[in-house]
What we know:
231 residues; Lyase, Ornithine Decarboxylase, Chain A, domain 1; 5 helices
Amino acid sequence: MKAKVHLKLDSGMNRLGVKTNCELAKLLECVSNCHNIEVEGCYSHLYNVNNEQYNKFYEMFETVKKIYPDAISHISSSSAVCENGTDKYDMVRLGIAAYGYGDEHLKPVMSVSTKVVASKSVSVGEHIGYGDFVSTHNCSIAIIFGGYADGILRNGTGYVVLRNQKCKILSVVCMDMTIIETVGFEAEVGECAEFICESQNAEEFARDRGTIAYEALTGFSRERCEKIYLN
């Protein structure tokens, strides 16, 4: 049985792949002598949507097709497809668009929820969480399951949605738990709290945490985050 492979071409991102025609010639010579490999296609990555990379990829791909005329090709990312609306190659590799982000016409498809594990009343001057965070007023807090071990970054501020209210994250995020302030009510153990939902999408959540939606969304891929697929 032959291993089907796609050759990586460096069209300008300078990460992985052969970069020059000389390197490509050596690679093609090498794989053509490997009887356990079948070249199925080749691909590249865009650092942004630009014709310079497309043109270089097309030039290198034409060289590959001289030896492998049935080879398929793919370079476009989510942003490229959303911006151009079409693609002349055989495949596209959707990234953030698969989550429903990257274009105003897309609808987010992922939500992240957890549960309240405890609630308390805190008086002004009391510490909350690790470090030197001190409450400036009397308040109600809720402790919810989920922390930086689950993909919730420690840096930044942010909110969690509970009872359709945005509840501010207090202090620093712990490894397993996050502490939030509940204004006007005391949370009950077992209540659902949401990090990402209809009223707070991944872009908002990421902005408050000082990062981008890509990192926020993929951060929840940790093993102990239960994943439920619908439809």
